[in-house]
Design brief:
9 helices, alpha/beta, Rossmann fold, two-stranded parallel ribbon, seven-stranded parallel sheet, 9 strands, about 280 residues
């Protein structure tokens, strides 16, 4: 039985790959983009199987209207993919208030509005899968990415709570954490006004980024289909080869730090914890 997808940020990058993978196997997709002309080729190829929707996910009313139109058009919604987002590069000291707010409006509030709009329909069906596109940067921070990391870390925490809240309704939640992909997304990232004090850090991070083995977006699209077809999907999953080795070290370092400072943690409690009842 084919699935019905609602995918934000479908014009290019991973979002486009997700949409193309779903349509190519006979699924139906409500594909959103800021400019639906970018979806014309999909409509020409797949016809009524794709519903192009013009949408800026920061517009809450428009999000609710788009989800409603998709449900009315296809009759149901099976997979919700919150993919729309953008990057913001800059040291924390360099960020303007508006840049930070814009980052959170798109990468955090946008998915919230989509979830709130879709949940009543999924709950009524007693089934559905919400897939939140986060990043390896959603679980491991890097320099010059404080705003982007903050938006993805917030999405991760929100999604973990959401998964526990909706499990009883038959709705599943998965957070996908991609590494680097050949999508050209970095070209569209917002750049904070650079302070020369951070130029050395910028150069070093740019050199590191050049060494990364970027993934194939088409492969990510095929992987997403497998994820959507899984009866018992994971809460979190990496896409690509970068996440696991990075997080192995990150969590080892965190556990060691917490253990090293356990005496201070206990001291901060104020009294000796009571022994557990036997």
């Amino acid at each position: 039985m084919s699935k019905v997808w609602f995918v934000t940020g479908s014009s290019r990058g991973l979002g486009r790959s997700f949409v193309e993978a779903a349509l190519s196997r006979g699924d139906k997709v409500a594909a959103t983009a800021r400019n639906t002309e970018s979806l014309d080729e999909l409509v020409a190829t797949y016809g009524d199987a794709v519903l192009p929707l013009e949408l800026d996910v920061t517009d809450k009313a428009a999000v609710f209207d788009s989800v409603k139109r998709a449900k009315e058009y296809f009759g149901r919604l099976d997979v919700i993919v919150n993919n729309a987002g953008h990057g913001l590069s800059g040291a924390v000291e360099e960020l303007t208030e508006q840049q930070l707010r814009d980052q959170l409006e798109t990468n955090l509030f946008g998915p919230v509005w989509v979830v709130q709009a879709a949940l009543p329909h999924l709950r009524e069906q007693g089934a559905g899968h919400i897939i939140q596109i986060s990043s390896v940067a959603g679980v491991s921070a890097f320099p010059l990415g404080g705003a982007y990391c903050a938006s993805k870390w917030a999405l991760e925490g929100l999604s973990e709570s959401l998964a526990q809240e909706v499990a009883g309704f038959g709705v599943k939640v998965t957070v996908v954490e991609p590494g680097s992909y050949a999508t050209g997304a970095s070209a569209g990232a917002v750049q904070a006004e650079p302070d020369p004090l951070y130029d050395g850090l910028r150069e070093g991070f740019a050199a590191y980024a050049e060494t990364l083995d970027v993934g194939d977006p088409a492969a990510a699209g095929r992987a997403l289909l497998k994820l959507a077809d899984t009866d018992d999907p994971p809460l979190r999953v990496f896409f690509g080869t970068q996440g696991n080795p990075i997080l192995q070290q990150v969590y080892a370092d965190r556990l060691k730090t917490w253990a090293d400072w356990q005496d201070l943690s206990v001291e901060a409690h104020g009294h000796t914890p009571a022994a557990p009842a036997v």
